[in-house]
Design brief:
Blueprint (H helix, E strand, L loop, with lengths): L6 H27 L1 H5 L6 H8 L3 H13 L3 E3 L5 E3 L1 H4 L9 H8 L2 H8 L1 H7 L3 H6 L11 H23 L9 E5 L5 H9 L4 E6 L7 H8 L5 E5 L12 E5 L7 H14 L5 E9 L9 H17 L4 E2 H10 L2 E8 L6 E8 L1
Parallel strand pairs: 3-4, 3-6, 4-5, 6-7, 7-8
Antiparallel strand pairs: 1-2, 7-10, 9-10
Keywords: Methyltransferase, S-adenosyl-L-methionine, Transferase
GO molecular function, one term: O-methyltransferase activity
Pfam families: Dimerisation, Methyltransf_2
């Protein structure tokens, strides 16, 4: 007979789950209301912030009090509110870009999407499609502000991981890098800055590429990086020796992935490679090894499954590559990122 879990332990676990969700909602509300930017480098009373933000003073004060408890704000001796070092990281001008990630995942539409997880599991369709009646990227045309929030979050997520991806392999054999679905080129421009012998192309939608010129200037890679607007489901630029797909395939179903990989195979120069940067799911079965890494992978899968497709196992990537005329030759872990890998494939 299994021992019963003490009620107070169950209650404690439930509180952690509930308050964990509320913690993120408080962060998201702070960012979307503009609290960190309104506070800035000084301190303010709640009524002053309410006037600036156009918010209800009573409810804003309660949110500010919660943000103090969460370490985002601090009380000054005269009862005003000021940013902590952690709170300053949520400002629009903070170089870590945490604000962009919080703003996107805290977007009301994303929370409606997460709320439809049960429906997604029952019906076998992405939760985002169940909520909006549209595919994730198809919806961008209907809501440009949501698309902008996505691209900003994607940019800052890539900014944080680009140096680690650069450490994951020897890039000396990559002279012509084509970053497929590379958005504003945050990854490619960082790689080109670290490897001055290389040139590159970023292919994505015209909207996603709007931030590329700024990244080219910031990394000092003028003349070595260019944009190619286009649909990688149709074709990709030819002649590259390295085709980079960072967090692209997990947003598409198997048939589309085979099409994307097949387009890369067709466009590849002789001796070229495809590099798939992705979180790898563990194979089905009991968790083996790092429990934290296992949890990260499966929760990342649920996150992606809500919006589009989801993460895959290495065996699943092997099947997709084989169907596209490619074979996987190497899997290199990305330092300090649980379960993230650079999967290298060449012509079969």
């Amino acid at each position: 007979m299994q021992p019963r879990t003490p009620p107070d332990t169950v209650a404690e676990s439930f509180s952690q789950l509930l308050f964990g969700a509320l913690t993120f909602r408080a962060y998201a509300a702070a960012v979307r209301l503009g609290i960190p930017d309104a506070v800035g480098d000084t301190s303010h009373r709640a009524d002053e912030l309410a006037a600036v933000l156009g918010a209800d003073e009573h409810r804003l004060r309660r949110l500010l009090r919660a943000l103090v408890a969460l370490g985002v704000l601090r009380h000054t001796d005269d009862g005003r509110f000021a940013l902590t070092a952690a709170g300053a990281g949520l400002r629009a001008d903070d170089p870590t870009g945490t604000r962009g990630l919080v703003a996107f995942f805290g977007h009301p539409l994303m929370w409606r999407t997460f709320g439809a997880l049960e429906r997604s599991v029952r019906e076998g369709t992405p939760a985002f499609t169940a909520v909006t009646g549209r595919g994730f990227f198809e919806y961008f045309a209907e809501d440009p502000s949501f698309a902008q929030s996505y691209h900003e979050g994607l940019h800052w997520g890539t900014e944080m991981t680009a140096p680690l991806i650069g450490m994951s392999r020897d890039w000396s054999d990559s002279r012509r890098i084509h970053d497929i679905g590379g958005g504003d080129g945050a990854l490619l421009t960082a790689l080109l800055a670290a490897h001055p012998y290389a040139h590159g192309i970023v292919q994505d939608s015209a909207e996603a590429l709007e931030g590329l010129p700024a990244n080219i200037r910031r990394h000092g890679v003028d003349g070595r990086c260019s944009a190619v607007p286009g649909d990688f489901l149709t074709e990709v630029p030819a002649g590259g020796d390295t085709y980079l797909l960072k967090n692209v395939l997990h947003e598409w179903g198997d048939d589309d992935c085979v099409r994307i990989l097949g387009n890369c195979r067709t466009a590849m120069a002789e001796g070229a490679r495809v590099l798939i940067v992705a979180t790898l799911l563990p194979e089905p079965g009991p968790a083996d090894g790092d429990q934290e890494a296992f949890t990260y992978a499966v929760l990342s899968d649920l996150l992606l499954m809500s919006a589009s497709h989801g993460e895959r196992t290495l065996a699943e990537y092997e099947r997709l590559c084989a169907a596209a005329g490619l074979r996987i030759t190497r899997v290199s872990p990305v330092p300090h990122l649980p379960n993230d890998n650079v999967i290298e494939a060449v012509a079969a």
